[in-house]
Known about the structure:
The complex is a heterodimer. Chain A is of the alpha+beta class.
Amino acid sequence: MRNLFICAVAFLILKTFPLASQDMMLIPMDLRQTEHLKAYGIAYMALEKQIDVDWLLNYRGGSFLLQYHDVIARECRIRNVGYETISGTQAAQIYAEVQAEDANMDVVRCETPPKIAVYVPPGFQPWDDAVTLALEYAEIPYEKVFNKEVLNGDIYEYDWLHLHHEDFTGQYGKFYASYSNAPWYIEKVRTYEQIAAELGFDKVSEMKLAVALAIKEYIASGGFVFAMCSATDTFDIALAAKNVDIADVMYNGTPPDPNFNEELDFSQTLVFENFEVEENPLRYEFSNIDIPPTDMGPSVPREADYFTLFEFSAKHDPVPTMLTQNHVNVISGFMGQTTNFDEQFIKPHIVIMAKREGSREVKYIHGQHGRGTFTFYGGHDPEDYMHAVGDPPTDLSLYPGSPGYRLILNNVLFPAARPKPQKTDVFDSETILPLFGDAQ
Amino acid sequence: MYRIVYYILIIMLMGGSVSFQLDSQNQQDDRTLYRMAQQYERAGDYRNASRLYERLYLRDPENTTYFDGYRRMLMQLREYDRAIAMTEERLERNPYDANLLSTLGSMYYQAEEREKAFDIWEETLAIQPRNIVPYQQVASRMIENRLLDQAIEVYKRGRENVGQSHLFANDLAFLYASTMNYRGATREYLLMLEHTPQQLSFIQSRMSMYVLRNDGLEQAIEVVENIAERNRDKLQFQRLLAWLYREGKDFEQAYKIYKQIDRSQNARGAELYSFAQTAFREREYEVAAMAYRDILDQYPEFERTPHVRFGYARCLEEVSLKADSLYKTVYPVSPPATDDRITEMRTSYDRVIDAYRSLVRDYQGTSIGAQALFRIGLIQYNRHFDLDGALETLHEVVRLYSRGDIYMDARAALGELYIVRGSLDDALTQFDSLIESQHVTGEYKDLAVLRRSEICFYRGEFDEALEELQELVRKSHSSYANNAIELQTFIIENREPALRGVRSDDALALYAQAMHQKRQQRYPEAISSLEHIVEEYPNALLVDDALLTIGDLNFSMRRFDDAISAYRRIQSLEDRSILRDRALMRIAEVYHHGTGDRERAIEAYEELIIEHPRSMLATEARKRIRLLRGDPS
C-alpha cells in the first residue's frame, strides 16, 4: 500500500509539474535571498511572459520555482535577485518534500499576472503610499483609479485593488486641527469637493460612502482588496455610518447627528463591530478600533515594538499561508494613522494573521465577503516607524529584504495563485479525497 | 429714637451683606457651571454641555456668552428649531445685530434651509451697506460653511459698496488661494502692495505658499508681469516680479528687472551688485557676470569696484571651466596635459587671466590683489599645465602676502608644483615651511605631513614614509587621515618579507616611481615602469595594481585596446587579485564612455554581476545596465 502511495504521489507530481530534462530556477525567499521585494517582480514578470510560477509555501521562506529561461535569469542578475539553477531531478525532490503529508508546506501554482489598480487621489505621488512604493520598487505595473472609476464600475477590470491610506468617512484624514491652513490640505478639500460636485454629491462624505459601498460590492463580486493604514478602519466606519452623519461642520458643513454612535449599523461592516466613532472632530483618531500609542498603557519602546505572524496549515489554509509567507515571523512594528486593530472589535469570522504578542493589538487580518476577499494591514510604512506628513519617502533599496513590505507583496501575488480547493469544500473534496483515501 | 434708627441701620447693613453674599455665591456658581459646560463641550459631550448652558442662559438671558454657548450646543445636537427660535427671539430685541443675524443665516444653512439662509445673509448686508462689518460677518459665516466662492462674492460687493478698491484684499487673496485661483490671489496681493509697499516681505511670505507649485508660480508671474509692465514707476511691483523670477530660477529675467530698479532708484550699481552677489552664490555665473560687467561699464565710481572686478573675473573663470570639455571627465585618470584638446582649450582662459592680471596691477597689497594672483597661478597649473609660470606666480603670492589663508594655499600649491616638476627637495622645503610656521592652521600642517610622506614614498624611503604617517593616521578628525591610512596600508601590504634580515622592496620602489611619473603626467614612462614590474616581478602582490594603472593610463590616453588588454590581464590573475571586479567595471566603462559600444558595455557590466555578484560595484553595474537599456528610472 505504501509503495502504491509513493507511486501515486510521484505520478501526480510528474503529471502536474514540468519536470522535463531542462533546468529549473529556484528563487529562494529565505535569508539567502538578496532582494526579496524584487523577487516578487521577477515572479510577476515571468507570469507576464506566460511562464508559470510555483509558489512553494513555507519552503525556504516561500520560494518560487519555475522553468529556467535565460531572459528570467538575466533579469534576476540585473535586479540582484538571487536564484539557483537546479536540475529537474532536484526540482522533483523539492516538490516531493513540499508535498509530503507530514510537512506544513504546499505548492500553489500561479498562472496569470493579476491586473492591479491603486485607488489614489489626483496629484498622488508614488512615495505617498507604501503599496505603490513596493510596486514601483518590485517593478510590478499598476494603474490608478479614483472615485469616478470606482463609481463607474471600471474597477471590475482589475483583479486587485489597493486602497491608498484614504479616509472613507469624508473627514479628509481628520487633519483639520493641525493642517487646516496648509496648502496641501486646502487643495485636497477643494479637489474632493469639486469631484463630489461633478459626481452629483452634495457632500464629500456622501461620495466617500458611495465609493465604500461600490468597493464592498466589488469584493462581493470576486475582487481582491488590500488596504493599509486609515483606509482599513475608515472603510468600515463609513459602512457602519451608512445611515447617520458622523462628520462635523468643518468637514461637511453640518454638525454630526447627536448620539451617532448609537446609530451605527455593524451589519454593514466587513471586519469591525461594536466600536465607537471618535466624537471629537479635532482629534486625530477616527474610532477606538485603532489603539493609539497614548492608549497602549505602558509605552512600548520602538526597539521592543514587534508583531508576530501566525502560522497556518499550508495544505488546509493556503490563503492565509500565502499571505504570511516570510523569511522571519517576528516583524518590527510601525505606526500610522491607524496603527493596529483592537482585537475586541474584530468580527469572529475574520482571520487574524499577525498581532503584537501579549496585547490586543492586531496588525494583519484577512477575510472573505461574497466571492471576494480582503486584507487589512495596520500602519503606514513598514520601514518608517513614525511616518509624518512631509517626511521624505522611504528608499526601499536600503531595505531589499523588508519583511513588512513582503506582506504587502504577498497580497499582490495572491490573486495570481490558483489555490487548491480546501478540505472543507464539499464539491471539490469528492474529486480529491478518494486518491488519498486509497493511500490511507 | 436714636437707638431705633441705629438698629434699623444695623439690620439694613446685615441684610445688604447677606444679599451681597448671596449674589457673590450665585456668581461663583455660574462661573463653576460655565467652566463645567466648557469642559463638557471640549470633551464632545454636547448633551451635558447643553444642559448646563441652558441653566446659565435661563438665569441670565441677556448674557451673550451663555446665549452663544447654549445656541452652539443646540446646533451640535441638531436641535435647529430651538436654536433658531431663541436666536430669532433675541433678534427681536436687537434687529440690527449683524453678528446675530449672520449667525442665524448660518443656522438656517446648517438646517438645510439654504434659500432662507441666503435671504437672511442678504438682510444682514442690507442693514448698513456702507459698513464693512456686516460683510466680514457674513463672509465669515459662509467660510465656516465652506461657501468659499460665495464669501468671495460678499467681499467683492463690500469693496464696491464701501468704495475702497483694496478693501478685504488680504481676505480675498487667502480665499482665492484656498480655491486655487492663484491669479486672483496675486491680483489681491498686488492691490495690498500698491497701497502699502512696505508689506512686500509679508506678501512674499504669503505668496510663497503657492509659488512653490509650478502652476502657482506661472499664474503669479503672468499677473505680476502684466501689472508691473503698466506700472513701471512702482518699485514694489518690480521687486515682487524680480523675486518671482528668482523663485523660478529665471535669473536672466530677474536681472533685467534689477537693471530697471537700479536705474529708476538712481542706486548707481548698488542694486545690481546685490543681485550679482546673489546670482554668484546660486552659481548663475553667466548672469552674475553680466551684472558685474554692467556695474563696471556704467558706474566706474562704484565704491566696491575691486570686489565687482574680482567677482566678474571669478564668473569668467567659472564659465570657462564649465565650457571646458575635460572638466567633467569620465576617465579614471585625468588626460595628459599634452593632449591636443588641452591646447585647443587654452585660449578660453586668456580673458580670465587678463582680468586677474589687471586686478593684481591695480590692487597690489590688498586681499583682492592676492586672491587674483593666486587664481592666476592655479589656472596656469591646473588648466595650462604651465609649471614654470605657475611656480613664478605662486612664489610672487608668497613673497607679497605672508599671512592668511592665501599664504597657506600658495605654499601648499608650490609644494605640489615642485612634486610634479620632480624637484622633491624644493617641495619638502615648502611643506616644511608650512609645518614650522606658527601662523599655519592644523589642516594645512596635516596636508604638509601627508605630502612629505608621499615624497618619501616616491623616493623609495618606505620606513621614513611610514614614520611620517604614524601620527596622521591616528588623527581621525583630519581631512587627510584617510589618505594617510591608504598610503600606510599600501606600503605595509606590498613590502617584501625580510630575507635574512634584509628587505627587498624593488617592486614597490618601481611602483612608487611609476606613481610619481603618473602624478607628473609622464604617462608613457609610468606605463613602461609598471610593465617592467609585471615582467620582472610577476609574483609581486602589486602586479594587479600595476595592471590596473596601466589600463587607466591607456584609457585616459584613449588607447582603448591597450586599456582593455591590461584590465583583462588582471582577470587572468584569478584568485591572486582582488581587483578583478574593478577591472571588469573599467572594461565596461571603456565600452560605455570610450568606444561608445552599448552592447559590449552591457555585456561587460553583466559579466561583472555574474562573476562578482557580491562586489560593491555590482549595484552600480546594475544601474548602468538599466541606464543603457533605457529602463524607466
